[in-house]
Design brief:
This is DUF1330 domain-containing protein. The protein is of the alpha+beta class and 95 residues long. It is built from three helices and four strands. The chain has a four-stranded antiparallel beta sheet.
């Protein structure tokens, strides 16, 4: 079943986070992921407000998780760790 990778982000260092974004896109694509929302308009109804919200679709939870743990994504993530506050989750979807 397909899965969504959902990230809620507050960027604290634009330059370092830009390095993350440059590397993360190809890593996601390499693992079959496709971005369906990236930082667009949103309405915060509950919880902690994070001004950047990203959604990528993968063929399965396993594919999304493999992407996260891949060397390519971990290299990208090394630039985001001290440049942002984030929550990231993977959720299976019914289609």
């Amino acid at each position: 079943m397909p899965a969504l990778w959902i990230a809620h982000v507050t960027v604290t260092d634009e330059d370092a986070y830009g390095k993350y974004a440059k590397l993360a896109g190809p890593a996601v694509a390499k693992h079959g992921g496709k971005f369906i929302a990236r930082g667009g308009r949103y309405v915060q109804l509950e919880g902690k407000d994070r001004p950047r919200n990203v959604v990528a679709k993968f063929e399965s939870v396993e594919a999304a998780e493999a992407c996260y743990h891949s060397p390519e994504y971990q290299e990208a993530l090394s630039h985001a760790r001290n440049a942002s506050e984030r929550e990231l989750l993977i959720v299976e979807i019914d289609e």
